[in-house]
Amino acid sequence: MSRDAMNRYSRWVFILFLALAFPPLAQSQSLSVEETLQRLYKPYTENSDPPPFDATGASAIASSRLLAALKTDSELTSPGDTGALDWDPRCGCQDFDHLAVEDIAVLYQTDNSAVAQVSVRPIGGSDAVSSLKYRFVNEHGRWLVDDITEDGKSIWQILNDSNQAQLKQLAALQHPQAVAFVRAVYTSREFDALSWPLLLTPSSRKVMEDFHTLTNQMSAKEQESKTIPDIWETSPLCGCMNPNTVKLETVQALEEVAGKTRVQVHFEQSDGTQDSREIVVRQTNGTWQIDDILAPVEGSVIQQLERAIQKGLRASK
Questions:
Q1: How far is CA 308 from CA 122, 162, 184, 192, 246, in A?
Q2: Fewer CB within 10 Å, N- or C-terminus of the chain?
Q3: Could you tell me the residue range of the domain that residue 139 belongs to?
């Protein structure tokens, strides 16, 4: 064998030795169920910020099934609103302070699933104890939370029930024609006045989310001084608390341009004044969504929000 061939052979042997002696981190032995729970509670006991429950990828805590339910819940929650889970199911609390883990007991375990009972004191030193039952599934060699039950209430069931109820509510608004869809939005007794952003197209919803991020950092006084539009207390669909309270008079399609249909709505406010809106809607995959809302004086809601965002960004520089 030549000297070059011998050198190449030696290098390959050395590389193989390193690969066997120091396997990649991803291939290292996975944590046990108890170790997974200990790691999960470490930020709580240290009074630091725990990772988000809906974290994905290498930081994931929840199983793919639970993540899907959390994702749908997030999509069905308007900016600024709270989803189906208004507490942290990992501690059975809304706030914690030097949380103390009292006990971790693995009740059942197979290669693919496990159940553990956990007792924690959200406020260290207090008498209040949360008793939580964890259900785990093994996904790609990692134990991930598939459900947490407290007092017989399953967070997955809570999420799923809420998601299905809202999806059914939104589906009930859908009709083949744009005019019928807009009429349903104004007349449906099940439609929550503050849920109108759920009907927005993705691009318009993104504007809403950016606007919420901006206003969330401002006091009410700052918003008033900068003439920030108030879309949280009143619905732009009517300029009132709830579009169901207006008396609908006429709903008619004005024009269809570039896949968008403008629908004009005339109605009477609860105080007897006449008012109107133009609702710009778009149908995608059989589902109608609102692209914009135009008021007689203020004009486009989306453009108002975009101007407010730009004004806020300029002020922060």
A1: 40, 33, 30, 25, 28
A2: C
A3: 33-160
Buried (b) or exposed (e) across 127-159, using 16+ Cβ within 10 A? Answer: eeebebbbbbbbeeeebbbbbbbeeeebbbebb
Cα Dmax for the chain: 100
Inter-residue contact 140 to 31 (CB < 8 Å): no
* CA atoms of 270 and 248, how far apart (whole Å): 11
Q: Find out whether 144 and 136 touch, Cβ atoms under 8 Å.
A: yes
We report the CATH number of the domain holding residue 293 as 3.10.450
Q: How far apart are CA 317 and CA 305, in angstroms?
A: 19
pTM of the model: 0.80
| 178 and 290 share one domain | yes
Q: pLDDT per position in the chain (317 positions), as tens?
A: 454 544 444 444 343 443 343 333 333 348 999 999 999 999 999 999 999 999 999 899 999 999 999 999 999 998 878 899 999 999 999 899 999 999 999 999 999 999 999 999 999 888 899 999 999 999 999 999 999 999 999 999 999 999 999 999 899 999 999 999 999 999 987 666 557 889 999 999 999 899 888 877 766 566 555 556 666 678 899 988 888 889 999 999 999 888 899 999 999 999 999 999 999 999 999 999 999 999 999 899 999 999 888 877 665 55
190 with 298, same domain: the answer is: yes
At 58, list the tokens.
């290498």
Rounded distance between C-alpha atoms, residue 200 and residue 22, angstroms:
52
Nearest of 238, 243, 237 to residue 187 by alpha carbon: 243
Match 């009429």 to its residue by tokens: 183
Statement to judge: residues 183 and 301 lie in one domain: yes
Q: Is residue 280 part of a domain?
A: yes
Closest CA relative to residue 280, chosen from 294, 269, 268, 266: 294
Backbone angles phi, psi at 144, to 5 degrees: -120, 145
Asked whether residue 24 is domain-assigned, the answer is no
